[in-house]
Amino acid sequence: MKKAIRKTIMGLLVLVFIVSMLAGCGSSNTPTSAPTSTPNAATTAPTSTPTPTPEAQTATPTPEPEETPSPAPASSGNSATFDAEGAIVTLELPGEDWNTQISQKGDKIYVFKGSSYRSGVGAVVVSINAKSYGYGTNGPVTSLANRVIGGIDMEGRSYSMGQTTFVEYIAPISDAWKTCVQITLDPEDAEVIAILDSIQYTVK
Known about the structure:
The chain contains 2 helices and 11 strands. By secondary structure, the chain is of the alpha+beta class. The protein has a domain at 70-203: Protein Transport Mog1p, Chain A (3-Layer(aba) Sandwich). It has an 8-stranded antiparallel beta sheet, covered by helices on one side. It has a 3-stranded antiparallel beta sheet with strand order 2-3-11. Strand 9 and strand 10 form a beta hairpin. It is rod-shaped and about 165 Å long.
């Protein structure tokens, strides 16, 4: 009987021990690993992309404005001399209120009334050109009677552009050079006729 009780007690003790061990394992705090904080991607200071310095732009060439003539030298008194590349032109001014200016390209002399020439001012324009007569129009051209200017028999023509009527006398003055006398004044005016009659060419 005692042996049976002892076995029973021993069995209970073993059971209690096993239960206590199991209970201890269940309640033991399993060390929780500190959550590995995924390091945020390093905040990289934004790399400032350097703004490229714009290259110097090539200026688009703009259309050449209508040339402003420069004063033409007068030889003496009311005489004017135009020393062009292909010829020398001399003429007489009919009065003190007449002036002359030479184009920037040096191929025309403007004879006009007033202190300075500008687009739209009536004038007698004598040009010397190697390639063409320097004037022309896409509109209708009226033939005029020839006129002798500076001892040269010149072909006459006229045409209109806008409100302006152009009267021109054209002719070759040598194998290489041509001339055009353009009039935007009254071609029958006495002073204009005096200018035309005074024009002389000396071919170089």
